[in-house]
């Protein structure tokens, strides 16, 4: 009899775990995109500021921003799944949500493959998990195609400017360094012990990057780098580019767009067509 009760308990737990999420809250822009990609879009009831893709996300109630999350409002909405950014959302507030018994799914893609894996994991909460599987497989196929295409390309040294004041960049292993390395880029600050090191203009000049990348948040087109004419190869050869920030900085299926943009620019630099 005890075996029967144990079997029933285990079966009940398994059945509950497989139930689709009907009320989902996303606490970062990238988890909002991942929710739609995995088939959870119709279940989303609230999201964070700057959750602007796809267009439907712009209509969602806002319950989080860079300052924190609205704990009372989130609890009142009674979500059965919360999507959080590990390292991006405040740990103390996330711990409170967990203590209240709310189901929190943490996303923290480190490698490009993690995007596909996360979509598949979220698909388990979707009423149509096949959408997540198809999206993840398509993403993997595109990544593999870029890997094959860029295997024997000449390495191009680059500097990625994440912010203006102070000047902050990325080290190897920190998002989105994976995009640049896939395209054959060599990060001039790749060996930095800090994930997002603060650097000076002079440190960049000493390392002589062939290419300088920025985003509208750190607009390289009107930046201080043009004051180093004659001392920076990237400036002398007009290899200073502004990238689409959302494609690059959010680990989502749209990362493919960032890869296309970066690889295309590297190709032009190698071919001397810029």
What does it look like?
It is found in: Periplasm. InterPro entries: ABC_Transporter_SBP (IPR050902), ABC_transptr_periplasmic_BD (IPR002491), ABC_transptr_vit_B12-bd (IPR023544), Vit_B12_bind_prot (IPR054828). One of its GO terms (biological process) is cobalamin transport. Pfam families: Peripla_BP_2. The complex is composed of two ATP-binding proteins (BtuD), two transmembrane proteins (BtuC) and a solute-binding protein (BtuF). This protein is an alpha/beta fold. It folds into two domains: 125 residues, 3-Layer(aba) Sandwich (Rossmann fold); 120 residues, Nitrogenase molybdenum iron protein domain (Rossmann fold, 3-Layer(aba) Sandwich). It is 41% helix and 14% strand. The chain has eleven helices and ten strands. The strands form two sheets. A six-stranded mixed sheet has the order 4-3-2-1-5-6, sandwiched between helices. A four-stranded parallel sheet has the order 8-7-9-10. α5 packs antiparallel against α6. It is globular and about 60 Å long. The N terminus is likely disordered.
């Amino acid at each position: 009899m005890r075996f029967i009760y144990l079997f029933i308990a285990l079966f009940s737990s398994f059945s509950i775990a497989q139930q689709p999420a009907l009320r989902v809250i996303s606490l970062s822009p990238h988890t909002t995109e991942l929710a739609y990609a995995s088939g959870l879009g119709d279940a989303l009831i609230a999201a964070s500021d700057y959750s602007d893709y796809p267009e439907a996300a712009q209509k969602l109630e806002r319950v989080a921003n860079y300052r924190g999350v609205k704990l009372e409002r989130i609890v009142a909405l009674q979500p059965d799944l919360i999507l959080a950014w590990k390292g991006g959302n405040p740990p103390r507030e996330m711990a409170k949500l967990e203590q209240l018994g709310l189901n929190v799914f943490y996303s923290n893609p480190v490698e490009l493959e993690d995007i596909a894996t996360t979509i598949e994991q979220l698909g388990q909460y979707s009423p149509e998990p096949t959408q997540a599987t198809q999206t993840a497989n398509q993403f993997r196929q595109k990544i593999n195609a870029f890997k094959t295409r860029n295997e024997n390309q000449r390495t191009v040294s680059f500097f990625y400017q994440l912010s203006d004041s102070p000047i902050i960049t990325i080290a190897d292993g920190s998002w989105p360094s994976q995009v640049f390395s896939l395209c054959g880029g060599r990060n001039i600050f790749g060996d930095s012990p800090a994930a997002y090191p603060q650097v000076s203009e002079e440190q960049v000049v000493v390392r002589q990057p062939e290419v300088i990348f920025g985003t509208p948040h750190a607009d390289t087109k009107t930046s201080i780098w043009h004051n180093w004419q004659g001392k920076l190869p990237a400036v002398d050869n007009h290899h200073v580019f502004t990238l689409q920030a959302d494609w690059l900085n959010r680990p989502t299926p749209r990362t493919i767009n960032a890869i296309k943009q970066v690889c295309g620019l590297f190709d032009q630099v190698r071919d001397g067509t810029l």
